[in-house]
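Supplementary Text 2. Reproducibility record for the structural model of the 144-residue chain.

All settings were left at their defaults, and a single model was retained for analysis rather than an ensemble. We include the record here because the model underlies the residue-level annotations in Supplementary Table 4.
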Amino acid sequence: MSQYTWKYIQKRPQETKKLLGINYEQLQQILAQAKLLHYRKKEEREKQKVRLIKAGGGNHSKLSEDEQIVLTLVYLRQKINFQILGLLFQVSESTAHNVFTYWQQILQEGLPPSLLEPVKKFPEEVEKINEELLAGRQRGLKGR
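Retained model, structure tokens:
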């Protein structure tokens, strides 16, 4: 299945900076390193796995590995909810969440933080906003 968001980035590499906070070359670097880490992790799991189904069988993902990684980077940069993220990538909310959780772990374990920092959008502001929302919610609960 061809995804609109991934096609958009490939057709307009200059827009990568606006969407992800990194340039297209940095995105390619992250994609290559993340896939390498993914394959290593996959090999480790295969060595320990007891097979019931022939290798290569089972359900396959609607998203390519590149699309899954881009989904993760879009979430890290834009902080949109998983329902909207699912709509952008034409998958369900739970699939978007599962994809993000898997790739976030791989990216955190294997990539240097300096490579991912530009993707994260003002983390200190997000934390400040979350604190303000929590304080407002607590004030609302006290007023009841």
